[in-house]
């Protein structure tokens, strides 16, 4: 406990130092301990113990000059103790080699060899396709982001016991099915890196979907996803996958910039057109624009293929840099959806493209595309198709057709939030109003809650 | 590590094209690589017999242990460095295209 000593540091400063170290060091130390010991549970526990020790030790003796080194020493010593004290029947093969390597680990946090590689090995393994998707997300949060099992459980609205079991199962599968702990070889690297990014983007979107939980619990997930994507980009620096990771980061930051305006006081969805751009986070937008430019530039020089996240970020950039909805460059948006349809074709992409075409070429052109899509029945049951159709019909003055399409959309709407939104549209007389459908908003449109700072 | 590949039928898979069935090449490659341990086709489920012993009595019945639309058409035991290699081996098997393949790690007694 803190005494009245002038020399003892402020407890808030200590907590801040521990938090900062947690962000910077958890992945690094965990990744290396896993590589050396092959034991995920042991590695996670030792890192957690080290942070717990810091919270006790640093208030007494001050925050160390090199927190990373201090934590590494404590964690590795803990690992050495636990391995030595383990029951002798369960002695692991090659234990002496493990102990030797642990003892020999340099303490400088930037010092031990291939620290970057270790973290990449960790992330690739956490996101291995043989693990169930929810386990990939949980394991990444636990070992790379350093969240406790309890924090992860709360964020995903399950009991701590359930989340603990999920993590135990995942570690067991890695061990028993022989998932290798490494950066994948060249022939696998592209698909596996896409796999990591899919996990991070899923995590980001989880931060904005509030399936019953409060945004206080969920938005940190979006922030965590951004932080992890920054880490990934840094680790991929110079590799052909770097542009894609920067594109993903830009996409996340563009979405994140709108967090204060996505829902209104009642928790209802606010469309892009209606959002008050004065409340958009301009520094996030500026950073995203710069990242996207860097990503595109790198993509050319590294000869990386076209990539879905960079194109999606390009579409977001058009919206986010326009002063108002009306002055958005919809022709460019439509063109980017053309590219997206080539890279990652899907009926939803086709629908969004049709809406962009309607905005740039007029409602008739868009309606023709939507009618074609409707006939394929590939979006049967997806409420945004009739909703988009209804808006275009209304703009063309075909009110009774518009009403029946709104009704069709209402019948398909997945929750109260969408029904309220469509109900409002149905009641609206204003022929100039349209809804803009950005994949992120529509994909996570369930029960939105007001974003918190 | 040893893995068992369960070579399974899959009614939703693309239609079987005999000309694209390169099982002979697959066997040759895997034997050359030292990956293949043992494997063969299995007669279809019409030729299966299921045995249980209940209350001391041996019960014999015709057919597979479970009635499913998918059934096991063959097996291969392979030895690979890790799961990624097992996945690569399985993905090259023609039945990965015309059926599905389950990869199950072998669990020796005593481990």
Q: Can you give me a brief rundown of this structure?
A:
The complex is a heterodimer of chains A (453) and B (111). Chain A is mainly alpha-helical and 453 residues long. Helix content of chain A is 66%, strand content 0%.
Characterise the protein shown here.
The complex is a heterodimer of chains A (453) and B (111). Chain A has 453 residues and is mainly alpha-helical. Among the domains of chain A are: 1-112, no CATH class; 329-453, Alpha Horseshoe (Serine Threonine Protein Phosphatase 5, Tetratricopeptide repeat), CATH 1.25.40. Chain A contains 20 helices and no strands. Chain A is elongated. The model of chain A is unreliable at 1-5, 109-114 and 429-453 (pLDDT under 50). The longest helix of chain B is centred in the N-terminal third of the chain and has 10 residues, at 23-32. The radius of gyration of chain B is 16 Å and the shape is globular. Chain B has helices at 23-32, 83-92, 94-98; strands spanning 2-9, 36-41, 49-54, 57-62, 72-79, 99-105. With 111 residues, chain B is α+β, with helices and mostly antiparallel strands. Chain B has a single domain (2-105), classed as Dimeric alpha+beta barrel (Alpha-Beta Plaits), CATH 3.30.70.1060. Chain B contains 3 helices and 6 strands, in the order E-H-E-E-E-E-H-H-E. Chains A and B meet through loops of A and helix 2 of B.
Question: How many extended strands of chain A?
Answer: 0
Total domain modules of chain B = 1
State the CATH architecture of chain B: 2-Layer Sandwich
Percent range of helical residues of chain A:
55-70%
Give the low-confidence spans of chain B.
Answer: none
CATH superfamily of chain B: Dimeric alpha+beta barrel
| SSE topology string of chain B | EHEEEEHHE
Largest sheet entry of chain B: 4 strands, antiparallel
Tell me the CATH topology of chain B: Alpha-Beta Plaits
Structural class of the helices, strands and pairings of chain B? alpha+beta
Radius of gyration of chain A: 25 Å
- How do the strands line up in the largest sheet of chain B? 2-5-1-6
H/E series of chain A, N to C? HHHHHHHHHHHHHHHHHHHH
How much strand of chain A?
A: under 5%
Oligomer: heterodimer
CATH architecture heading of the domain at 329-453 in chain A: Alpha Horseshoe
Radius of gyration of chain B: 16 Å
- Give the CA-CA distance, first to last residue of chain A: 32 Å
């Amino acid at each position: 406990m803190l005494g009245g000593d002038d020399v003892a540091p402020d407890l808030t400063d200590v907590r801040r130092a521990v938090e900062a170290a947690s962000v910077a060091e958890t992945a690094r130390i965990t990744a290396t301990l896993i590589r050396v010991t092959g034991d995920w549970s042991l590695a996670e526990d030792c890192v957690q113990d080290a942070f717990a020790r810091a919270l006790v030790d640093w208030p007494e003796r001050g925050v160390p000059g090199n927190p990373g080194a201090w934590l590494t020493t404590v964690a590795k010593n803990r690992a050495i103790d636990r391995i030595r004290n383990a029951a002798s029947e369960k002695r692991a093969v090659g234990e002496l080699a493990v102990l030797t390597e642990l003892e020999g680990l340099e303490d400088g946090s930037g010092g031990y060899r291939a620290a970057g590689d270790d973290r990449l090995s960790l992330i690739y393994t956490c996101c291995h396709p043989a693990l169930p998707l929810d386990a990939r997300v949980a394991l990444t949060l636990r070992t790379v982001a350093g969240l406790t099992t309890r924090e992860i459980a709360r964020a995903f609205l399950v009991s701590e016991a359930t989340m603990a079991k999920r993590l135990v199962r995942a570690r067991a599968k890695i061990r028993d099915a022989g998932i290798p702990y490494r950066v994948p070889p060249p022939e696998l690297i592209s698909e596996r890196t896409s796999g990591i990014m899919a996990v991070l983007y899923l995590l980001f979107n989880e931060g904005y979907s509030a399936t019953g939980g409060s945004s206080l619990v969920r938005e940190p997930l979006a922030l965590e996803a951004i932080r992890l994507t920054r880490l990934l980009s840094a680790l991929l620096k110079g590799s052909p996958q770097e542009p894609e990771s920067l594109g993903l980061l830009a996409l996340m930051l563009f979405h994140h910039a709108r967090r204060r305006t996505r829902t209104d006081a009642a928790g209802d969805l606010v469309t892009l057109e209606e959002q008050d751009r004065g409340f958009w986070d301009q520094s996030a937008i500026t950073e995203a624009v710069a990242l996207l430019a860097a990503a595109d530039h790198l993509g050319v020089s590294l000869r990386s293929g076209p990539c879905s996240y960079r194109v999606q970020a390009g579409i977001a950039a058009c919206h986010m840099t326009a002063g108002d909805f009306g002055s958005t460059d919809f022709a460019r948006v439509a063109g980017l959806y053309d590219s997206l349809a080539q890279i990652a074709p899907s009926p939803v992409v086709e629908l969004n493209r049709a809406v962009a075409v309607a905005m740039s070429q007029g409602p008739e052109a868009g309606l023709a595309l939507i009618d074609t899509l409707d006939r394929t029945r590939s979006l049967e049951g997806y409420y945004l198709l009739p909703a988009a159709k209804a808006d275009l019909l209304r703009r063309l003055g075909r009110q009774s057709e518009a009403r029946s399409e709104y009704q069709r959309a209402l019948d398909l709407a997945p929750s109260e939030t969408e029904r309220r939104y469509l109900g409002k549209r149905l009641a609206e007389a204003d022929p100039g109003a349209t809804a803009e459908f950005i994949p992120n908003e529509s994909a996570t449109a369930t029960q939105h809650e007001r974003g918190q700072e | 590590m040893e893995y068992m590949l369960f070579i399974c039928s899959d009614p939703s898979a693309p239609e079987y094209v005999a000309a694209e069935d390169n099982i002979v090449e697959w066997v040759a490659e895997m034997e050359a690589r030292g990956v293949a341990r043992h494997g063969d086709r299995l007669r279809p489920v019409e030729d299966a017999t299921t045995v249980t012993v209940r209350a001391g009595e041996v019960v014999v019945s015709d057919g597979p242990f479970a009635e499913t639309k998918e059934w096991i058409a063959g097996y291969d035991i392979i030895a690979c460095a890790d799961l990624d290699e097992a996945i690569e081996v399985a993905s090259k098997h023609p039945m990965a295209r015309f059926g599905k393949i389950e990869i199950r790690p072998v669990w020796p007694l005593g481990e």
